[in-house]
Amino acid sequence: MDRHQNQRWTFLSNHARVLLAFARNPAARLQDVAAGCRISERTAQRIVARS
After folding, report:
1. pLDDT for position 1
2. DSSP track, 3-48
3. Which pLDDT does position 9 carry in this prediction?
4. Which pTM does this prediction carry?
5. Looking at the domain assignment, is residue 35 inside a domain?
6. Number of domains present in the structure of the chain
7. What is the mean pLDDT of each run of 10 residues along the chain (51 residues)?
8. Is there a domain that residue 46 lies in?
């Protein structure tokens, strides 16, 4: 199986999706945002730290 078959294409970058998730729900846990964006918690943490 090609590793790209499981990936879903989105118009927004991971950065935009994480920031949008927190804009919609500022009290959200990083763990929940990461799961909703289908990225690791570490990736979500890096995005938040850079913003």
Report:
1. 46
2. GGGGPPP-SS-HHHHHHHHHHH-TT--HHHHHHHHTS-HHHHHHHH
3. 74
4. 0.76
5. yes
6. 1
7. 60 94 96 96 95 81
8. yes
> Among candidates 41, 2, 28, 5, which has minimal Cα distance to 14?
41
Distance CA 51, CA 4 (A): 29
As a whole number of angstroms, the distance between CA 42 and CA 22 comes to: 16
Provide the residue type at 10 as one letter. Answer: T
pLDDT for the residue 10: 74
Other Cβ atoms closer than 10 A to 42: 10
21 within a domain of the structure (yes/no): yes
Residue 4 in domain: no
